[in-house]
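Need tokens for this chain, all 195 residues.
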Amino acid sequence: MPLEFQLDIEKVIATAVFIASKNPPELTVGKMMKLIFLADKYHLVRYSRPITGDHYDAMNDGPVPSFAYDLFKQVLRKPFTSQGRQLADALIVDANYELPRFSSRVEFDPEQLSQSDILALTETIQQFGEKSFEELSAITHRMAAYDKAWRSRGLFRKSARMKFEDFFEDDAGAIAGAKEETMENDCLRKSFAKP
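Here are the structure tokens for all 195 residues:
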């Protein structure tokens, strides 16, 4: 059974606000999606859980957090959910570019994320924040988790679900035993879940 995590909508929004508050250059939707992915991956392979719990799809331009992507599409159009409105209220959208860019309208509240979440996001911004979307796309295309999902997608499909188990492959920062612990915890969570 594949690894699954509970989506935490508040953490998705807090993660986006954190990234925007650090003002990485040319922060488009595409770049935001790559930074969220890289932070979730960083956290998963070191702490046995992602930050957001969002699931990832391998798409033509690389990994995409499904729920976060849907929220950002709302922000660019007209928010129709309370979560879309919450994110739209927290971000400034600069539409003076071909691809709109984001910055934070509010100050990040550190109480919304754990210390390890903040560490993972900080490390991700330091390592990848200055890179362009194209550079981030190239980096994520080379990752085993993306490559496996993309090759498995089927002839006429534009995307394929990525497996969290594959996030551990080819990651020098992965903590020994983290994958096994994550899988064991997931199995226990599923075994004791209420029907």
